[in-house]
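Re: the pair you flagged

First of the two:
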Amino acid sequence: MPIGDIVEWLDEHSGANFTWYIKRLSGNDTLANGSHQAGPYFPREVLFGFFPSLARQEIKNPDVHFDLYLDSHADHRNVRAIWYNNKFHGNATGGRNETRLTGFGGSASALLDPESTGALTIFAFKMPSSSEQAICHAWVCRDEIEEELVEDRVGPVEPGRWMTWPPQQGHLFNKPPVRASCWLQSHEIPTPWLTKFPSSREIIHKAVELRSDSTLNPDRRLLRRRECEYEIFLSVEEAIELPFIKAGFQNVDSFVSRAQTILQRRKARSGRSLELHTREIFIEERMIEGADFVHQPESEPGKRPDFLFPSAEAYHDSTFPSERLKMLAVKTTCRDRWRQILNEADRIPAKHLLTLQEGVSESQFREMTGAGVRLVVPEGLTEKFPRSVQPHLQSLESFIADMRLLKK
């Protein structure tokens, strides 16, 4: 389908009458992991904002029906927004307390199709007048090009995160309401950062400082550090950009230029964050850079995998056994991007890929496995994958243990 379709759709469903809820579909949203959820998850505060009548704790599982048009796949359904609130109705310890959309008719809908797991998805709610019901137009991105077109407008959308667009007043992409973790107040931000935005390495080093987590295994450490680094990034961004926003702009060009700077910075951060966190953890796990692993070496002319093991010298030594060479690619999402790693290291037929994507379909996993890709998924995310896939996933801790054996 032509690129113009999604561009026109984004334009048509923008403006004062629309509010977007944007996320990447997880295995719990689709039918990929065989769960009973059968519908995309929405935070309560978001769904209550669209349908205030749901916020009735005294009623068990209140719901609202509304029209949802899945324009990317020419599908229209009358679906159900529901607050599962059993926790407040006699099941305080094991009851549910979450809001979802249901009633899509199973995997016939692209929103529940296991193949849509990981897809960037926009729910554009048209806010009603006092006498009308809200309706929703949705778009499930069908390829990487469509995802890039969306992220060019709103910035990167990572697995496990969601955003509303335009951002809710007083918030910048789910800013934490209190200084509970790594959000830096203005007086805590290093002065040089306020004149020149810190590099990815500088922010990650700050996250390591605030979240050393030395007693945690590499998987939990990685996920906690990523959350911390993201909060640091947003706090510095707000400290730098909010004064410009409040001061206003003299013309449209200056506004567009500033917005593009912010979006490009967010995309650059998203693209390198996981890779740099992984390098830090390798070093913390007493792996020596240059001897046990190498970061972004040249494997073949013009090809640079994220990590090679044990070293670039070993890779280029034709006498070094190929079976003792490993590579690790790092991609926050892998739904379309996993194919990019297939030719990054010709001597290594089995490519390992570290990802934070919350699940893949069984057919996607079979295709990856058939191409020689082995998924490395941090503990805590594996439950988002189909049960049949979970035994074949490797944790980061296990992967590191395997890499230590290469030189023995």
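Second of the two:
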Amino acid sequence: MSSKIGSVAAIMQKNASNKGTVIFLHGSGDTGKGVKEWVNFLLGNDWNFPHLKVLFPTAPVRKYTPLGGAPSHVWFDRENISPDVPEHLDTIEPMGKEVVNLIEKEVMSGIPLEHIIIGGFSMGGAMAIHVGYRLKPQVAGVFALSSFLNYNSVVYKHLESYKEQQEFPPLFMCHGDRDDLVPLTWGEETFKNLEKLGVKGQFHTIKNALHELKRQELKAWSDWVRERVPE
């Protein structure tokens, strides 16, 4: 199966005076088009980045072990949806390079690297953390909504090696307190571990939220994006 990112599903805002780009990675089993429609449904006219381009790429279709090996749009494979299994680096590494290629295409189009934000929902947020703190740490910021890193993540090992040598992009995380797929404690521990290793950011607990996006978190997210790349 292909390991290439699918065609970019949508560009939410594209203006002649674009100052930056936001790349939003969907969760497992979804598509760029799907998460774009989800964000639009929740925010409607309450979000507008007239100075930014927002990209919603689609992950390739690959065999996904938690679905019994059935094909699905996922950024990487994993043994189980659990923090204590090893990361599947055979799929994380090539996919990370594909996301970096997407970032570099934006740079080649004239967008400064320090004006590019990478993030996503659930698995998409996990992929973004790998990119923003290992593979392309010069980005303007990383966001991870209902997201996670496994206990022995290579991201932690990488940051431990470099924490005295560079400043890392700020992190924005949100997590539902009723999430029954990726428990709140998993998200909180991910944030605390990154914070101990030199990452600065915000963690917001979303009340009465399951494994989902909520309007209030997206409003806070859009405010954060504007702070990272102002008009």
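The radius of gyration is 16 Å.

-B.
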